[in-house]
Amino acid sequence: MQPAPVLEKHLVFKPIVTGQGDGKGAAAGKTGMQTVEQKKLQETAKGDLFYVQIIGDGKTKEGNNDAAKWSIQFRDLPEVVQKRPVTSRLVADIPIVDSDPITAMAGLGYSYKSSYYLTGHRFTHLNTSLLLIKAVMPQTGESPEHVSDSEDVVNGQLVDPSGSYLIQASIRVQDGSKVELMNRATAELMNLKETLKGVVDLEVGDRLAMDTRVR
User: Which CATH code is given to the segment(s) 4-203?
Assistant: First the structure.
């Protein structure tokens, strides 16, 4: 399959401390999340406070999106590495409809903290998604809700001054409690690692660096 261009704006949100917001504002009904899904997200956190990101798809030279489509992205703390030779954690992506991201998250009890872009390409191999990306800072004065086109982002300041790309290989498993599915996904990732040996070394990421809990 031909690589697909990637241009995403990531908005980072932090939960408001209890007493400053109850997370049940009027905007909560405009995120596209039903009450059951809200409870599921809260139960997933298990009492911990997590940073949450909002992802906006931007315009690329190959694409022609009329407007950014925003979604809530939740990433749990990865499991202990010793269990498997790959990183495993619960993920959730929930679309936002009929609301801007700042208003939607304020209604859920979150405040905006910072933003950055990811730009690059996505490759697909069997069930594996391969992301080849760079992180770029937004232009000075750019509002969080604005998503620039690819040319503006390419000329932005890189988070990593070396200009190196980040490669992420991942497989989404519908039910992580099913051992057979997890083992098949793990085996496919390990086969890909062996195939790419000598070209790029795929390694398990730092678990603490991927910890999204609020400290």
Answer: 2.40.320.10
